[in-house]
């Protein structure tokens, strides 16, 4: 039992070291001065501004709930892929949250606007609470 806990502690220390290395990389190479970094900032802010002006206020709760579900689902898929080493983000907005721009803004807002478009065009059946 003690060996298992010790092994787990070693893994946690390795993860802490990896995060420290990412933080060092972020500041050492001044990632925040690159075009790609500012592109990720754009991918974070622009979809939210667009959504603010384009969202149908009469279906705000429904569309936002849908977007939240996409955000959570995509966040878990992204975390899984990063943990297995399938992909990573060399230009994160914050080094401790690498996929922030895609997970919280670009992908959910895109899905939300497409969902809103399909509702307005009666492409899908929505439930109505009476």
Fold and architecture overview:
- The protein has 130 residues and is mainly α.
- The chain has helices at 2-28, 35-54, 60-83, 100-120.
- Helix 2 (35-54) packs parallel to helix 4 and helix 3 packs antiparallel against helix 4 (100-120).
- The longest helix has 27 residues, at 2-28.
- The model has no long low-confidence stretch (mean pLDDT 92).
Principal-axis shape: flat
Q: Unreliable stretches, pLDDT < 50, 5 or more residues?
A: none
Helices, by number, come to 4
Strand residue content: under 5%
Gyration radius, in Å: 19 Å
Count the E strands. Answer: 0
Biggest β-sheet strands, sense, barrel: none
List keywords for this structure.
130 residues; mainly alpha; 4 helices; 71% helix; 0% strand
Quick description:
With 130 residues, the protein is an all-alpha fold.
Topology:
Layout (H helix, E strand, L loop, with lengths): L1 H27 L6 H20 L5 H24 L16 H21 L10
